[in-house]
Structure formats: structure tokens, C-alpha cells
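Translate sequence into C-alpha cells.
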Amino acid sequence: MDAGPSHIHLNPRTPASKNPPISRFPLNPTSKNPIFPLSCVAIEHYNKVQPSSSVSEKLQRLGFEFRSLPAPIDRVRRLLKYAEILPPFDESWRVQENRVQGCATQVWLEAAMDGNGATRFRIDSDSEITKGFCSCLIWVLDGAAAEEVLSVRADDLVAMNVGLPSKGNSRVNAWNNVLMSMQRRTKVLVEERRTECVPSFICCNQTQLIRDDCIFDISIGDDS
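Result follows.
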């Protein structure tokens, strides 16, 4: 039986507080991913994964972790370990507009962008294996810059090698559908942030123009 790395603490999922706003996602200013300071990677390698690692580095470490488990049943067990450390998902987010479409199981995704422009995600599913997939993606993408989230391709997840080779396999679809949903939500958040910044930019330009006009008028007055 795979006992899993000793640094994983399998605490029961505590119930989420009532309707916590997504802005209250735990943040650590020194970490891009405060939820999972370390991957579930094998004990002899886990100390190489830094909290500030890039998305690309985390994908590489995650791939190594699952490739080190040659038996399919062991990879599934590792997914179940990840499922147990998936952050709580508030019931108020379990609504139709947060459903991830195309999955064989029910999956909900809530996304936001924090004050530093980092993307924040919460995911849940009614399937423990799908929760494991979601937990892996949370570890890689939660707290990352939008550009990094959008740079990930479905092919980058092949190294996890959890689903069967067939592209039609439901587990493979879970990776792809959740990833694509996270990227779509990220694009929406980027556009919303850009739109919010436009009025402020215009206002600043108008103020500067007014100031320039005043200076110009004063100069004319001095010359006369």
C-alpha cells in the first residue's frame, strides 16, 4: 500500500465558512501558491520545489512525481492523496454558472484575480479522482500570473499519465476540460481588469491635459 510522502498531512476537510468572498482566498506575499507550499512529490525531491517556482517548473515536478509511479493503481492512489488536500469549496459557489462543462462528473470552478494580478482558483467535484486532478491543477496554477495560466497546454499534462492512452478517456477529458475552463475564466478576469483600468487612465490623461493647458496659459500671460 502506498503510504504517500510523509510530509502530506491528511486532515479532514473543514467546512467552509458561510459565503466567504473569493477575495479572502488565503494569500502569502512571499509565495505564489500559499495553499500548497510543496507538491506531493517523492521525499527525495520535494525540497527542490520552491513556493515561488514557475508554472513550467511545477508541471515538470508534477510530471516527475507521477512518472515515478509506474503502476496505474499507484498513480490513482496518488490522485486520491491530492484529493484529500484540495482546499474547501464554499457552498455558495456551487452554482450552475460555475459548472465545468464536458466532464463525466460534476465539477465547479470559482476564479478571481487578486490585487497583485495573480489568478486565484477554487475547484470541487463530486468525484474523488476528479478532485485529485483539480488539486494538481490548483497546486500548479493557483496564484500564478494570467500569462502563465494561459501558456499551459493540454499536452503539458500528458506526463501525469493517469488516464488510459485513449484521448476519449474520461480522466483525460477531466484534465482538459478543467484546464480549459480555468483558462477561459482567466481571460474573462484579464478583460475585466483591463476594462476597470481604462476609465482611470482616461481620467489621468484629462487631468494632465488640463494641467498642461493651465501652464500654457500662464506662459502666455507671462510673455505678454
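Note: Residues 208 and 214 are 10 Å apart (CA to CA).
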